[in-house]
Specification:
Strands 8-9-10-11-13-12 form a six-stranded mixed beta sheet, with helices on both faces. A five-stranded parallel beta sheet has the order 2-3-4-1-5, with helices on both faces. It is of the alpha/beta class. It has helices at residues 4-10, 13-16, 31-42, 54-62, 93-104, 116-122, 142-145, 168-180, 184-189, 192-214, 220-230, 240-247, 251-263, 298-319, 363-372, 400-405; strands at residues 20-24, 48-50, 80-85, 108-113, 132-136, 267-270, 286-289, 325-331, 337-344, 347-354, 377-381, 387-390, 395-399. The mean pLDDT is 88.
Length: 408
């Protein structure tokens, strides 16, 4: 459950050297629990400092090196992990963190985490460039539930033999995650009633606290209305103009709201793929929720589930330094469409189509596969344990549980 593979990745010597690890992700995804558990297992829970705590802010104001007093330097022979949670809420936090890093690198391994604002401020340009790597804690995967480390022997475009049929625990985890989403609290509640109430509260927290903290958005109720309307728009190119008309709000404002919903990890968008495709749609992205249980229609929820799994895989592969992966969709003005395309260094490497029940390989999948000269493609359906190969066509048809084995 704690996604310890993320920490193994974030703290790997081959990446960090002396760098800090920034860990971002959705609210209530378990970042704090992950790091407190990690320090507890090391026997140093005192190295966790939360800037929401008045005593931590006071101690820092009196002495920026206050944390060093808890370290028995005479007993330390390697860098000490120190967690700063929500430090971005402190004025001029980037300059302060730069000073601490420059003074203590090689002796302290800083791990910085917090709400979406951490990721937002990271993108704004600052003196921390070259001093950290960013990692993301994202919704649960079956391997987090059954405590199975990620299998990175399969990477999009580089190997195509699916693994053995998943066992019962994996199948159960896949099904439960599909029903209850990948956020720890609703997932481990096991209750759809709890999920419904949690979703309402979670949306309110994201919009009224995180989003309001990021920007000067004043019409909070309108933003909540936008988020609710988006639940009906999964799987189709998203028209900002149409949303502007529906909400009777200007185009630039809707654009800013959509960007804000991404920054607080409510949604993510994937752009159309346009290279080497005639008559490809070039502008309108498709939008999905990190909480894949939010779309109202079952086929949309299933497509959203696949989108979230692929986006998580893209982040993990990139964070492992395995390539430069991106997620797209394919759609032409002639109506030829495939749900997802993974690229590596801009080269198409994996086509994925999501159909909740239809196991028929659609002509569009084969057509786009031929156009883009991709060796293999995948059709993902609900059916547990399903695996069928169309070897002449280079297409694997598989159940959701099998597909998730191919993603980290």
């Amino acid at each position: 459950m704690l996604q310890t593979d993320l920490l193994a990745r974030a703290l790997a010597p081959r990446f960090l050297k002396d760098r800090m690890a920034f860990i971002a992700g959705p609210r209530q995804i378990g970042k704090t629990t992950l790091l407190q558990d990690y320090l507890g297992r090391l026997g140093h829970p005192e190295f966790y400092y939360n800037w929401d705590t008045a005593t931590v802010r006071r101690d820092f104001q009196q002495d920026p090196d206050f944390f060093s007093k808890n370290v028995g330097w005479d007993k330390v022979d390697k860098p000490v992990p120190v967690v700063f949670d929500e430090i971005h809420k402190y004025p001029e936090w980037k300059n302060h963190l730069k000073g601490l890093y420059d003074s203590w690198k090689g002796r302290v391994r800083f791990i910085v985490t917090g709400s979406a604002r951490l990721d937002f401020m990271r993108k704004s340009g600052d003196s921390l460039v070259g001093r950290y790597f960013l990692f993301r804690k994202l919704p649960l995967h079956p391997r987090d539930v059954v405590k199975k480390p990620p299998d990175l022997s399969w990477i999009a475009g580089r190997a195509w033999e699916p693994s053995a049929e998943p066992d019962g625990a994996w199948k159960d985890a896949s099904r439960q995650l599909m029903d209850l989403n990948g956020f720890p609290e609703p997932f481990y509640s096991g209750s759809t009633e709890f999920l419904t109430r949690w979703q309402t509260e979670h949306l309110t927290l994201l919009v009224t606290e995180d989003l309001a903290d990021l920007s000067r958005i004043e019409k909070i109720l309108k933003v909540e209305e936008l988020a609710v309307r988006l639940r009906n728009r999964i799987g189709a190119p998203l028209s900002t103009n149409a949303l502007s008309e529906d909400l009777q709000t200007g185009f630039p404002t809707i654009k800013r709201w959509l960007e804000g919903l991404e920054l607080v990890y409510l949604t993510f968008r994937i752009p159309p793929y346009t290279r080497n495709l005639e008559r490809a749609i070039r502008k309108e992205p498709k939008l999905y929720f990190w909480d894949w249980s939010l779309p109202l229609e079952a086929p949309a929820r299933f497509e959203n589930r696949i989108a979230a799994a692929l986006m998580r895989a893209v982040h993990v592969w990139n964070e492992e330094g395995l390539g430069q992966f991106e997620l797209h969709y394919v759609r032409t003005r002639d109506g030829v469409e495939v749900d997802f395309l993974v690229t590596d260094k801009k080269k198409p490497v994996w086509l994925v189509e999501a159909k909740s029940s239809d196991e028929t390989v659609a002509p569009n999948l084969l057509k786009v596969k031929s156009w883009l000269k991709i060796g293999h493609a995948t059709l993902v359906v609900q059916t547990p344990g399903l695996l069928r190969a169309h070897r002449d066509e280079g297409v694997w048809v598989m159940g959701l549980d099998r597909f998730l084995q191919m993603t980290p």
